[in-house]
Amino acid sequence: MIASERFERAAVLGVAVAEETRRLLRLHLASGQEGGDGEVLVDVPYPDAVVVTALLDVAAECFGERGDSVEETRQAALETLLQLAGFDGESQLNAG
């Protein structure tokens, strides 16, 4: 396999991971959970919480995210993943 093919496959996998994370968060997002500062709290129950945690840990490792705690590292990875998934009309998760 040539380097460009490996890169393309990695990019497709990255977007798929980002979209799956976003799908799981939207699945458990209830209306009225947005705070005044725009921050949103989403309670993801088991077993989806295990999947989201694993996705964030993998993303943090891939992106080289660091924080003072595991939670800060996961939060930084989540922000990067959501940027990758995009909050625009082109995301498949916005259709509906």
Can you tag this structure with a few keywords?
3 helices, globular, 96 residues, mainly alpha
Structural write-up:
The chain is mainly alpha-helical and 96 residues long. It is 60% helix and 0% strand. The chain is built from 3 helices and no strands. It has helices at 3-28, 48-63, 70-85. The radius of gyration is 14 Å and the shape is globular.
Please report the distance between the alpha carbons of the first and last residues.
Answer: 38 Å
The H/E string reads: HHH
Structural class by helix and strand composition: mainly alpha
For the report, how would you describe the main beta sheet? none
Shape: globular
Helical coverage, percent range: 55-70%
Uncertain spans? none
Return the average pLDDT rounded to an integer.
Answer: 81
Compact overview of the structure:
It is built from 3 helices and no strands. With 96 residues, it is mainly alpha-helical.
Topology:
Layout lengths: L2 H26 L19 H16 L6 H16 L11
Helix pairs in contact: 1-2, 1-3, 2-3
